[in-house]
Amino acid sequence: MFKKLLVLAFAATVSHTAVAQSSDPLMQVDYTKFRYSFNEMYRIANPSLLQHRTFYAAPSTGPDAAWFDAVKQGNLARVKTMVAKGQKLEAKDDASQGQTALGWAAFIGYTDMVHFLVDSGADIRATDRADVYNALKSAVMGGNVEVISYLYEKLKGETDWNKRESDGETLFLVGAVDGRYDFVKWALQFKPDLNVVVKNEQTGNETSSLSVACEKGFYDVAQLLIANGAINNKTGKSSCQ
Questions:
Q1: Alpha-carbon distance 219 to 155, whole Å?
Q2: Are 209 and 194 in contact (CB under 8 A)?
Q3: All domains of the chain, ordered by start, with CATH?
Q4: Whole-structure pTM over 0.85, yes or no?
Q5: Which residues pair with 206 in a beta bridge?
Q6: Which contacts (CB < 8 Å, 24+ apart) does range 128-131 have?
Q7: How far separated are the first and last CA of the chain, in Å rounded?
Q8: pLDDT per residue as tens digits for the range 191-216
Q9: Tens digits of per-residue pLDDT, 21-63?
Q10: Nearest residue to 116 (alpha-carbon basis) of 103, 127, 102
């Protein structure tokens, strides 16, 4: 209940700010243009989760702003029209880590748009300036299993759920620590290592999928991990306590 109230409070704050500062083009956000509800988008990214990928807080900027607005809003009809008129598929959203349209669609979870962009020739291995190295990782961070499964079939020959990334995380761990329950449940078929421990080089703090799920309040993910034998590296037990 607390989390629900927090989401609603944040939504009210953003809406009020948008109205109060309507003369500022960066605050003129019309949430009715988005395919998803505000709460659905908040669950994907918010000030406490993947803040740098909060795609709905302000209009896009730069020479391809209209393109990225259409993508982020989930406006497939407009996206198709723009592609037909010659829109460059690999344009980079420079104000948002240099993400591509396919990266955004995969992250947000627009299945139909992901299919269209891939069929139109979008690069499924496009990177961004943060930690994305292909569209599958973007999808895992967002948690839409339909999109994840589709992209996995195209990239499974080069996908290792247990391969360590530069920060020590694995692709499975990425989805787990972001609280993506449906993804974790789906990915268990590949028997990923549930007990990978990552050390933060700045703080020295060590975490695992279960310890993070417990600390962040992703209790559905925590219970699923526990049911499959995950160990909390903080306690050495298969529990949050």
A1: 30
A2: yes
A3: 2-159 (1.25.40.20), 162-241 (1.25.40.20)
A4: yes
A5: 199
A6: 128/92, 128/97, 128/98, 128/99, 128/100, 128/103, 129/97, 129/98, 130/52, 130/97, 131/165, 131/166, 131/167
A7: 22
A8: 999 999 999 888 889 999 999 999 99
A9: 344 444 568 999 999 999 999 999 999 999 999 999 999 999 9
A10: 102
